[in-house]
Amino acid sequence: MPTDVVMPQMGESIFEGTITKWLKKAGDAVEKDEPLFEISTDKVDAEIPSPISGILTEIKTPEGATVEINTIVAVIGGSASENASGTAADTAQSAPATKSTASPAASDSRMAAVPQVQSKQKAPTQRVAQTPQAIGELTRSSPLVRRIAREHNIDLAHVAGTGSNGRISKDDILNYIASPANAASSARVSERSAPSQVAQVVSASEIVPLTRMRAIIAQRMVESKQISPHVHTVYKVDMTRIVQLRAEQKDAFETRHAVKLTYMPFIATAVIAALKKFPIVNASLVENYIHYHANINLGIAVALDWGLIVPVVRQAEQLSFVDLGRTINDLAARARTKKLTPEEVGGSTITLTNSGVFGDIFSTPIINQPESAILCISGLHKEPAVLTDSAGIDTIAIRSMQHFTLGFDHRLIDGADACQCMLTLKRTLENWDQEIV
Amino acid sequence: MDSAHIDFLYLGRVDYDEALRLQAELVALRQQDRIANTLLLLEHPPVLTLGRNANRANVLASDELLARRGVTLHQINRGGDVTYHGPGQLIGYPIFDLRSLRNPSGTRMGPVDFVRQMEEALIGLCAEFGVSAARIPGLTGVWCHLRWGFPLDECRPSKASDPPQGERKIGAIGIHVSRGVVSHGFAFNVTTNLADFALINPCGITDRPVTSLDKEVANPETLPGLEAIAYKAAQQFGRVLNQPIRQLDSLTALRGTAKPAIYNPAEATSSATRAD
């Protein structure tokens, strides 16, 4: 009984293999478990043992060729006598082999069948693609390549393969996608194959490709929500004392330090004090380890007309009030004028985002991975508040209030820690007692 | 040896040829299922090795310069390109039978899956010293200095073709698998003289430099010796493969654990099947 030798799977996400060397030639006798051929990937090469003892009657995949897993690469006959009638056996073998390679293509064309049927008249090339020969062309690609093709709505019949027998490699399809001419043609394919109702809706919209920054933001936001179970806690802070202090000191501060006095250094100082008390809020969870960061690197989210960027105040815990203010102003200004250096972005351990300029009450920000918390600073506004004096008498006063929202990763931070951290922030701001000059 | 576990031993400095011979001996023993999965840990004198896919052009130094610096050159049968080994670099040769291992999902562990597990172990080893390391898809090995920046034009490379952004390789991996048994393994820079990497383009990667553990930790003087780090590496292998580890004192002890050779080939086959 002839036995098929198939391409084994090298790993869970590996769908093809390259035969680098045949250790036996057709006609050789092989023992079960004797190395038959070698396959290799990037950093691995493996000798593949023969599944059975017998005569290697046929090698179907030459050295250097890449084939999908479970493709029949050789046939081992049961005995030398069967080998004598090798020609007949070969012919008999090649027929089922062809059938087996054709079947994934058949299922593929089934998957694509619905849109293709609808667009038959408009798309003559696709009709051609349904002839048996063209389906044979489609098979010369890997599951990965076909997945990429599906994701990008690309008809593989249009992609030239550079592999053996015109096989379409991953590089071939990526190059095809990267080429602007084809981007247009693949868009045409998707238009053609889209069901008609969808097409009507789409035609009313303007379709604009994502900028690189937008695409990265999109990816990061989804990743963050997938990785971290977010909890948000909102604190209302009475900023009246700081508002007064700032109003008094603003001009003197600017004259003396040539730095505009904003609320940010006050808030940053209070954040640093709170993080020092609750280092878990300044930590990262990486591969089942908690990384308590030695420094507090404050990411400052800066809204741009074209997206969002987070420059970083490094080792913020070592900066004076003035230097905090100066650094934050400088980074924000240069972020808006695209003058940041790569070193100034990335590596933050917590992020501050300021939605207050847009007048919100509070917002629920998404964590900037791999950080564990993000503080959203909302709008400062005046409101009536009940104050209780030392004698226990309540009065209504007009106070400057601001909401602060801490978004935190509940894998690492429990509500008690997050809330106490926020309470420290609140108390530092409400009872501000530090020199600012 | 009756229950699944990992034997490991630290051999100190071993000549490259000697280590090749030792691996061949242990691979044969493992193929006959006479020893347990065994992790050899050691360091080499300065040596360049060229894997199957090696491009000689990635050895930048001339033969004369190599000879002057006492660096020898070896052509070997693992995957991968050019690698430098030398003092201060922890070498691990896992002589493991892949058929005795399972992926966490319960499927058969393929060679590539095993490489991913080795990366996981080395990432864990870095973490033990507070060093953050990760994979770059398409660039086998363990990397430090990956950017974890927020949305920006620069970000962590998610594939090999992304431009480098300052990431540095701390651990290199290349394995050979014969009849299900792994040989070769990893090289993890602890206090390696990184200047020696100037002799080559490591793994043919020209634009991404190397680093070592002593460059990545806050206080290099507190790093323990190579043997203690080897022990931690073995623990990490135990962790990722979810098996207990057992330290052996010497090669004599290892050979002493070997089951007697089975002379009946049929029986040998059936015993290998049982190991599955």
Report on the structure:
The complex is a heterodimer of chains A (437) and B (276). In chain A, 39% of the residues lie in helices and 24% in strands. Chain A contains 13 helices and 17 strands. In chain A, the strands form four sheets. In chain A, strands 9, 12, 13, 14, 15, 16 and 17 form a seven-stranded mixed β-sheet that branches. Chain A has a four-stranded antiparallel β-sheet with strand order 1-8-6-3. Chain A has a four-stranded antiparallel β-sheet with strand order 5-4-2-7, with no helix packed on it. Chain A is elongated, with a radius of gyration of 33 Å. The N and C termini of chain A lie far apart (91 Å). Mean pLDDT of chain A is 79; it is low at 80-138 and 184-202. With 276 residues, chain B is of the alpha/beta class. In chain B, strand 1 (6-13), helix 1 (16-31) and strand 2 (37-43) form a beta-alpha-beta unit. The longest helix of chain B has 18 residues, at 111-128. The chains are: A alpha+beta (437), B alpha/beta (276). Strand 5 (44-49) of chain A pairs parallel with strand 9 (168-178) of chain B, so a sheet runs across the interface.
Portion in beta strands of chain B:
15-25%
- The chain-level structural class of chain B is alpha/beta
Terminal Cα span of chain A: 91 Å
Order of secondary-structure elements of chain A: EEEEEEEEHHHHHHHHHEHHEEEEEHEEEH
| Quaternary state of the chains | heterodimer
Radius of gyration of chain B (CA) equals 19 Å
Series of secondary-structure elements of chain B, N-terminal to C-terminal: EHEEHEEEHEEEEHHEHH
Global mean pLDDT of chain B: 84
Mean pLDDT of chain A: 79
Task: Name the helicity range of chain B.
Answer: 25-40%
**Unreliable spans of chain A:** 80-138, 184-202
